[in-house]
Amino acid sequence: MEGYFKLAVSRAQGGLYDKTVLVQTDTFTDCCVYVKVLVNGNTISGWVVRALLELPPDQRSIYEAKAKVRAEEKSVQAEKDTLEADRQAAKEAAEAEEMLRIKARCHALYKRTIDKKQADLTVRETQQITACEALDYYH
Questions:
Q1: For residues 118 and 30, what is the distance between their CA atoms, to the nearest angstrom?
Q2: CA 96, CA 88: separation in Å to the nearest integer?
Q3: Is-contact 9 29, C-beta < 8 A?
Q4: Where are the domains of the chain?
Q5: Could you say which DSSP state residue 29 is in?
Q6: pTM for this one?
Q7: Can you tell me the distance from the alpha carbon of 94 to that of 130, in angstroms, rounded to the nearest whole number?
């Protein structure tokens, strides 16, 4: 955004500079605007509190439109973040549920096989015991 704005900034001497000057900006936040100000042939740049800029009516509508777009973008991003968080929570819940099922199966296997002799175990039981031991769930 570039235009002539009324800018009131304090000087080091304590006085106010209250004059319409050319201000260039394309970076702004909710409270501040990064400006390049041309004053008496010198370019001064830095962050200025937005309240210090008095926008002309034609510039105000452009600024408000950009602010509205930025607010909509934030809203869309917040929605995306919420959806991603919900997706992640559902994924973690499903993984936890699956681990509980595996743990329950290993515990049932343990109860069923703990008193059997090694020679009496089937191949399937031996493989299941090995898998459960690898997960540290055979107890």
A1: 72
A2: 12
A3: no
A4: 1-54, 101-134
A5: -
A6: 0.47
A7: 24
Name the DSSP letter for residue 14: S
Distance CA 57, CA 130 (A): 77
Q: What is the pLDDT of residue 62?
A: 73
- Whether the Cβ atoms of residue 128 and residue 109 lie closer than 8 Å to each other: yes
**Spatial contact of 134 and 106, defined as CB atoms under 8 Å apart:** no
Tokens found for residue 121: 């175990």
Report the candidate in 79, 77, 81 with the shortest Cα–Cα distance to residue 89: 81
**Sequence-ordered list of residues with C-beta below 8 angstroms from that of 125, at least 6 positions apart, any chain:** 109, 112, 113, 116
Model pLDDT, residue 67: 77
Calpha distance 98→79 (Å, rounded): 29
Cα separation of 15 and 26, whole Å?
Answer: 28
Over residues 109-124, the pLDDT tens digits come to 999 999 999 899 999 9
pLDDT digits (tens, 9 = 90+) for 51-108: 656 666 666 677 778 778 888 999 999 999 999 999 999 999 999 999 999 999 999 9
> Cα separation of 86 and 74, whole Å?
18
